[in-house]
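Lecture 7 notes: from sequence to structure.

We start with a single chain of 641 residues. Read the sequence below before looking at the structure.
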Amino acid sequence: MTTPDGVFDKIRSDKPMGATLDKARGTTTYRLFAPRARNAWLCFFDRPAAVTWTPSFKRFPPTEEYRMWKDPKDGVWEITTRGLDVGRFYGFRVDGPPGDGEGFDPAFVVGDPYGRAAANADGLTIVVDPAATNQWFKGWTDQAWQTPNPQDAVIYECHVRGMTVHPSSGAPAAKRGKFAGLVGTLGKGTGLDHVKRLGANTIELLPISEFSESSDPYNWGYATVYYFAPESTYAQEPEKGSGFYELKQLVNDLHNQGFAVVLDMVYNHVGGPNVFALIDRKCYFRLNPDLSFSNHSACGNDVKTESPMMRKLILDSIRYYMEEFHVDGFRLDLAELIDMETMLAIRDVARAINPKAILISEPWSPGRGENKYQLRGTGWSAWNNDFRYAAKDFVRGSGNRDWLKGSVFGSVDLWALNPLQPVNYLESHDDVAYIDEITTNPGKDGRTLNDRDAALNRLAATILFTSLGKTMLYEGQEFLRSKWGIYNTYNRGDAVNAVRWTDRDRPLAKQALDYYSGLTQLRMSAEGSSFRVAQRPPRSYYRWLLPENPKLMGYVVNVPQLHAGRGFAVLLNADDRDRKMEVELGGATAWKMIGNGREINRKGLSPRGWPAGKSPPTWPAGWKGEIDVPKLESIVLMNGF
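Now the structure, written as tokens:
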């Protein structure tokens, strides 16, 4: 049995990897880390792929091939060619020792793990000029951009293709489903116009690094092949490497439209073709005793993030996307599988470039559980599944108020050091859409809306936006978008996953969108600063209202005033009957109702049944009494009047 005997813990190189242009000398240098390889060759092709599968499998010979030389001190293979090889298709052949658990195949041409562009996931990598401007990238104009303060983040998770591929997006037909499609929605009232109207200020893109191909053009992207290459199917001219430049243009334009940009990165496993296994399987992957892949990711392999050169690749990619593409931060998929030393190194690299870098962990894995408790105080935020499940349970009438209280209070009594750590959410790309989760329709299919489902969604949204922690929405949640009751729609194509912007025209969907927009604007207002708290507040900052009925709950926030913003009283009724709630408002100023479960208006609203034309009621400072809360709805009061 051939094993590396810890060699990968000792070998490391600080040399730049991949293809490096030297314009002064007119040369291109290629480097590949493969310390156990016996030979490595640089191969150039005049086509985007080294093989074809149709009508039958065939390998194409390279137009040029050069044997590389190995530096025995660091295991890096290298060669320098004359000329600037911009636009050339290239890859490597790697030959290594045979034996148990090995993956070397010198007949297979693999793309460059550091390649900045790829023709497609099954094809070759492409040399690009990082400094170039062209028809796809006009140059940076985002110099005035500032990443939002962490407590101010309202995150909108979305998919590049899903947001614009449907004709209802209004994006130009040639740009639908592409990087350019998002900006193509400006002026159409969909896409970016929609997110701006909603009030979100941070766009979190599902993976955009080159990922595995499939027969369906829709793909979530959680099967990375080339970490440094923007996804070719999102590019207008992938065989010219345009995606490299188009992603730059997208980030530039998003900044100029007022959005921070967060990239979802998948460092815990890789997709196919598995170029890393062909370069050195034992270097890049955790293996079982029988040398099969460890598979706690449930995706076929677990990347060995603790290996020094895999860690270098991860850190290099973090620097790359922040410096080359100006992104504001990252969300790491199944980050429980990333060793903590690497997680902290990512933090240090990112924050050295941008002290306000947004860093979010998905703090679990299918095979090993979760580690968000270990993230406490590390500077990492994490998806807060406690909030997700507790809020769902409460609005469906299950009670669980103690669990929900902990999540509403920023999870600081559960796992977080401060409210900057939890990312609270009701819906994400994973699992089922929220309207499908709560619907009583057959098959959990929420496409046919009803008043009850819409009310439960608004009730949960009230909790989300009046809690401490970062707030996240998933595309379409705010207008009751259904995924037909299907869990994990990664393989269900555009039919299920494309956002249909005309869905907003349904009356209940329009009401929901207006309500979400009102909640976002409230949270981001000067008055709503009460919910945007960076440090752990005293427990008295939220005063809980817990009637005997477990389906009722409320909280009075920032009374007396301890933080910027107004005082609030949030009353929640998850019962199927109208209920009265005993409330002691406190404070030194008068109160008005600004939310009635169906509408948000910071100037004041009237309770249901209030005489038409009569001014909205005012509750005096320190008022104590009962307030009617309609079934399945909420009441939000604010002071300062």
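Residues 507-524 form the longest helix (18 residues). Keep this in mind for problem set 3.
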